Amino acid sequence: MKRLAVVSGKGGTGKTTVTAAIADLAHRDLDLVMADCDVDAANLELLFSPNVQETIPYYGMKCAQIDPDICISCGACAEHCRFGAILEEKAIYRVEQADCEGCGVCEHVCPAGAVTFVERKHGEIYRSTTELGPLFHARLIPGSGTSGLLVTEVKERALEAAADRDLLLIDGPPGIGCPLIATVTGCDAVLIVTEPSMSGRSDLERLVRVCEGFRVRMFLAVNRSDLEERITAEILAFCAEKGITVAGLIPFDDAVQRAVCSHRPLTRTPSPASDAVAAIWAVIRDEMGLP
Amino acid sequence: MQIVIASGKGGTGKSTVAANLAWSRAQAAPVTLVDCDVEEPNLHLFFPGGHTDTPVTRLVPAFDSERCTRCGDCGRFCRFGAIAVLKDRVLFFPEICHSCGGCALVCPNAAITERPISLGRIEERHPLPDLRLISGVMNEGEAVGIPVIQAAKEAAAGDATVILDSSPGTACPVIETVKGSDVCVLVTEATPFGLHDLKLAAEVVSSLGVPACVVINRSCGDEDETEAFCREQGLPVFLRIPFSREIAAVQNRGGLISRDLPGWQTAFAGLYEQVVSRVEVQR
Question: Does ipTM come in above 0.90?
């Protein structure tokens, strides 16, 4: 089984569109499992109308809780909390759960034993079926923290289901922080989808330097490549310097927005963008040694 | 007045709106623009020029091997698995350390002190006499940039008009950026992805008690569902930016449509007035 994650650094470059198109092509002759690791804004489900088979609650780290009947209002917890998670109002102390990292320092310093740790549901993980194969996705309750841990849990379940299949295809998160690191960890390859803008190029360079810390093969696709050909050329030069395989360029094409608006993968209707993704997939499939 | 720009979905045009809003406002009054997307900061690309740097650090443990008895209390305490105590030495993994300070507190032999390590930096620029740009930049390879966001907001504290540009998503970096703001501008695009993520972002912002309004970017005329959602939720739509290759070209090259294309300075100055009025209505 091979593991491929689609990532971008900058948001909105077309990760989900490309992931869905590759899934649509790959499932025609490969055994495929998909995971949506962009857990705080998961969109893959909007294209594949998944049938949810199982809903698994996600708890994340336990959070501190102060029992007001035991609390002696000494303030030691608030003094030692590095995350500003303990609030005091009229000598009543309470934990702001969204800020609590679950480190346990408050429990350790409390002389009265008023602090306990409780599980709190931060989201849900879904095991679904789609016409292309199983999809693992999740919903983070808006306002909860810890999305990196949720990414890891979604991925672990998807990996288990993909054990005797050909490909685990992951739609990744934007950025370079914990959700991205959790996504890339353990992958064989990443496909970086970027765009020819100053922001896209800057974010790409930061992402590549993070990915270099992992033993992961890098492929790159430039989306809407003809909108600013000078920057596209600079991106290609950067890839040559870094030894990143350019899998292809996707031209700007109205068909992309039409596909998203009709909730369908791009590859269901012929178009220049659809042909470009097919060519990109052919390169990756060959280079990754997929059947 | 603290205005935060957020979106849920990435790439909808948060930085475009933040940069143009700040540039337009700075023609009339002082404004401070803060890049809180510390994983992928981009606002400085719109305002090239020299800058001053202030480091942002975080504390991690330092182990005194003379005093340490390898008792293992620190490793058992650490909920993040950042410390492994072996028979003859202690292994420490700084990238998963949350800097809570617990290990130093529990060590019975005072063998642990804390030392600062670099997490990122705050860059400051003054692209116009009335425009101050503060960019939070997290080091590549770090997992959690929250202290950089806090330092960037702190650097702007006390300034009369502050515009914060958030990272995409709905998780901790967004919450850290949005909280404490007077009003939030949600930037969306009229696609099923844009609308789905707008709903999530609106939920987060509302849970933090911050009033919100909407800008629809890359508008192509068919935005009935987005408009209907905004009406239901009482979210006023204050500006529509159409999709055009001309606007995309200005953007992609790091230009500002309010400076480089006619009509947009007035449009963004109008957006500023409407956003401010939204705060006053709430009060």
Answer: yes
